[in-house]
Hints:
Elements lengths: L11 E4 L4 H12 L4 E5 L5 E2 L3 H8 L4 E4 L11 H24 L6 E7 L22 H14 L7 E7 L1 E3 L5 H9 L15 H6 L13 E2 L1 E3 H13 L5 E5 L5 E2 H12 L9 H11 L4 H4 L7 H6 L8 H9 L6
Parallel strand pairs: 1-2, 1-4, 2-3, 4-5, 5-6, 6-10, 7-9
Antiparallel strand pairs: 8-11
Helix pairs in contact: 2-3, 3-4, 5-8, 8-12
Amino acid sequence: MTDATPSPDGPVVIGGSTGFMGQYLIPRLRAAGREVITISRSGADIAWGDQHAIDRAVDGSSLVIGLAGKSVNCRYTPDNRAAIFRSRLDTTSSLSSAIAKAHTPPPLWVNSSTATIYRHAEDRPMTESSGDLGTGFSVEVAKAWERALSADDLPRTRRVALRSAIVLGHGGVLGPLKNLARLGLGGAQHDGPWPVSRARRAAGTGHLPGARRGAQRFSWVHVEDVARIIDFLEATPSLEGPVNAASPNPSDNAEFMATVRRVLGVGFGPPMPRWMLELGAIGIRTETELILKSRWVIPEKLTLAGFEFAYPKLEDAIRESFDVAAAA
């Protein structure tokens, strides 16, 4: 780890700038007077694959933020699984190579990871110091992503793997849930028996039954707090390695869905059984693991370092995301 003090003088380089998080960070950083250089497949200052341009952008930068990766909101077919791995590992390796070659490397590189790296947890919360890593396709993606972050020797650049929980904000995961709740389909998502083929077991893509009646834990974080965490990391040189980006007040699925309905003024939402969720997931080309895995994550490192969340409570985060003011 470097003991250099981060400087805001150089540009901020954002790899994967066109996604939900990138589109939130860019105007926020520019409003703070920071120069931002973006990298993406399209619609950015630099395209992935143009390594010479990436090298030039990173050299002398004050902060590199890696956000690139194909969305996991898809069916885990062999082609999609390969694309999910490739999109994360290739882009992370590109940033790492640029930092390794830089004459003036950035003091800090924050790279996306995911709280999904931890096991399905119903017994206790997962922290950076005591959390158990899980198994299966999604976990292996996260492990490989973090290995790519630490693969090269970068003695003058501090590295953070930001293990983000579900990020709430305008759009994102809440958009579809808002529509479902208003249609009367905003009930808790109930796990239960469902046949998992031998091929899906071998690939680690079949969700096995876990928490019942919407009791699966739901760790979350508001998008503004993710941005503030990055600010905090830049100002706190002692923080490095895995950092859990999650509210200190995790919920569970039933409470989360009830809060969505309450904020929207929807009185009732019947529970959604596993069989219905599986059929719906097939129809919209996604996976039930995204809503049935119990993710129970606590931000131990941030809390010990003194970080204060702007949105520590679930209802406040959802109200802001839906632009619904609290009742007087």
